[in-house]
UniProtKB/TrEMBL annotation:
This is Transcriptional regulator, LysR family. Keywords: DNA-binding, Transcription, Transcription regulation. Belongs to the LysR transcriptional regulatory family. The keyword DNA-binding applies. InterPro entries: LysR-type_TF_proteobact-type (IPR058163), LysR_HTH_N (IPR000847), LysR_subst-bd (IPR005119), WH-like_DNA-bd_sf (IPR036388), WH_DNA-bd_sf (IPR036390). Residues 1-59 form the HTH lysR-type domain. It holds the Pfam family LysR_substrate. The keyword Cytoplasm does not apply.
Amino acid sequence: MDRIQQMEVFAAINDTGSFVQAANRLRMSPPAVTRAMNALEERLGVQLLTRSTRQLTLTDAGTRFLIAARQLLVEIESAEKLAVGEEGVAQGHLTVSASLAFSRMIAAPVIRSFLASHPRISVSLVAVDRVTNIVEEGIDVAIRIGELPDSNLMAKRLGVVRRLFVASPEYLDRRGTPNDPSELKLHSIIGFTGIMSIHDWHYKHGKSRGHVQLHPRFEVNDATTALTAATAGEGITMALSYMVADEIRSGQLAPVLVDYLPPAEPIHLVYPQSKIVAPKVRSFVDFAADRLTDAIGQSELALS
């Protein structure tokens, strides 16, 4: 088995998380995949994967080699397409990751439009409320909220989102509108752990800073459930601006303590840095960036 095929096997194992699933993807037998992986590690003289009965984990050497191997495989694919006159044609399978709420409300509609105009591309949308490891999980493009750490990823800024407290007008009429963060202690708090995992909320008001300890009466790891409870008049919850733009626009929810909210956070499209960006990735970034920016901007308009 040649070196390129060994790299393809290694990448497929990391993409699927399983030797058996990698074999199915590559149309090889599981023993052949195992032999290829063993041969690769023997040839390199380092262990690339730590194997256990439950999971496969990249070693540090494996992480470094996977980044380089993916770049090389992209360049080889581009060279082959160039030889047959398909260089620059967007085709193949694309994997995109974003948070659950962002996927449902903003990313999925844009992806469906992208698919309608790119018939040679298929897309998997990985909706998870955690930061995905693009290299280890085989993600082509990710949508990240918050400041980006230094990395080897390319990034395209899409706009900003804000964290804000919201409640229904009916709840505020019944329990009163808090005018100071300390008054949150007197209210029923609905905690969405995706953005409120720490109950000690720090805020800034002008030049002064402070914090208040929150004690949620109802806590859930799903944004939709938290917002449903808030809309039903059951308490105050924290959400990201795009999650509640329609409800604020329609009057179902109202922002509270707006003078104490933290600064807006940036949102980016990120993808692995490479000398040659795969046409499917380039096409998606070019197509999606403006549309995502417009959708995010519309949600911010509802709050202005």
